[in-house]
Amino acid sequence: MNLRNIIFIGLVLLGVVIAMVPENTTKPYKLTAEQMLIEVQGAAEMVIADDVAHWLISKDPSLQLIDVRTPDEYQKFHLEGSLNIPLSTILSSENRDYVDQGIKMNVLYSNGTIGSHQAWMILRQLGFENNYVLQGGLNYWFDTIMNPQAPSVTSADEEFAKYDFRKAASGVFGGGNAETLTAPTANEAEKPRVIRKTKKKAPAGGC
Amino acid sequence: MKTSYMNPYLAGVLLGLVLLMAFFFSGRGLGASGAVKSVMVAAVDIVAPEHTANSHFYSKYVGEGKEPMEAWLVFEMMGVLVGGFLSGAFSGRLNWRIEHFPGITAKRRLVFAGMGGILFGFGSQLGRGCTSGSALTGMASLSVAGFVSMMAIFGTAFAMAFFVRKNWI
Amino acid sequence: MGPLIPQEIIGADWNLFIAFVIGIGFGFVLEQAGFSSSRKLAGMFYGYDTVVLKVFFTGAITAMLGLLFFSLFGWIDLNLIYVNPTFLGSAIVGGIIMGAGFIVGGFCPGTSFSAAAIGKIDGMVFIGGLFIGVFFFAEGYPLIEDFYMSGSMGPLKVSEVLGISGGVVTLLIIIAALIMFKLGELAEKRWPRAEY
User: Fold this and answer.
1) Is the ipTM here above 0.90?
2) What ranges do the domains of chain A cover?
3) Most Cβ neighbours (<10 Å): which of A104, B52, B102, C84?
4) How many CB pairs under 8 A join A and C?
5) pTM, two decimal places
6) Can you identify the CATH homologous superfamily of domain A33-146?
7) Closest to C104 (Cβ–Cβ): which among B28, B30, B112?
């Protein structure tokens, strides 16, 4: 059998195989299990509610809140300026540019921390940066920011400072104990550094 | 002079493998006309820099920090010259000649070669690629542009073959 | 996992060197296949030499299969490779002009370089023509810029348009190509030419 026929048969066989096999659309995991364990134990992805409140009040442009709950829950209430990316859609190509980027600081939140952490785990394993989890979620947000409890008289000064801040913040956000409406001037909340990454774009080509 | 060329199907497989390696290493396919454009842009920029800065076409490639000659295709085409030369040397096909159908003169061949080049140069810019960059590479990556290019180029060549047949047969 | 340079597995400084090496392979194969001869190239359109058909389609199919199989084995991420963007109007008109250039000049840019490399003066003249043609385009750009940018459909793939997988598209092309090869070989028997 001459070379030409070998090539023909080879191409046809390969063609049949590749036509029958389902296309590989999985995105590879970038972090190993060991790396993930280290990250999870370090808990560097957590951000506290007070900080988020501060950034919202000061209209920090690098903050991007992402609500990972269902659209219905999002409709009922969501934090101002947040995007709704339900957990089920977090891997879709339309949302890729939101969760895989190097410009903004994404803070994922859900009612508690489970949903937002689930989302964070997946995104982190894919190697995406700049995604964080709102500690305590909306439940904690309501309890502390929107309806802050006055500390007992024997608490430390910091507790009072925090309380004052939260009272004022809740006023801005339209919460319960709005005793003053002036925006609070809390200390500059230490922000995690946004990891600017050169986005892995497909290379240029053409003629 | 009887020349022995490689089995075309084997050559095709090798060509496909070279193209595959280009994708695998650099994430892009082959090309040719882009290298001509890069050299031309660099040349015009040396001669008339204000013209290139003001033009929608040239300004994409020149200016602060942009080096038109440091283009993937320019280096690739330099490799093509070397590779072609090596193949010619290997197969004993190196000599200066103007290859043409015996029924026409060498001069006529050169005139048509020049005209063909002008047409192809213009068309490749408009079509965003030539047979290597758009048709071959495009088809390999399953791009619609690749197939459209391929059909337009080959279709037109077939259609026009009748009118220039005296040059070839 | 490839592509190696966009994934930063190999440094970007290697890119131009790799381009050079790939070019050597490209030029070698082109010349070995006989693409340095304008009479062989033009023969495609008169039936006496269908080398263009065979090499071109076998090459495209091999690379298509290669990409899909590499992706299957997890060796390449197909989202990161360049897919030529489709600008319908300019692709068609550009293709028509190139087709005319092909049959008039007997070369395309890649083959003209491999021809020039072995001393073909008609190849060199063709290259000269290329520069002039590109220059005309560059200078006349303001006139056709709007047309050039029209009909943008993005990096559209055939598999997306037809709603079938890349593998099925490849198989269909293989079948179509085999039919064309058969026809090509019949044509060569019908219209033989003396060796050139």
Assistant:
1) yes
2) 33-146, 149-185
3) C84
4) 76
5) 0.75
6) Rhodanese-like domain (3.40.250.10)
7) B112
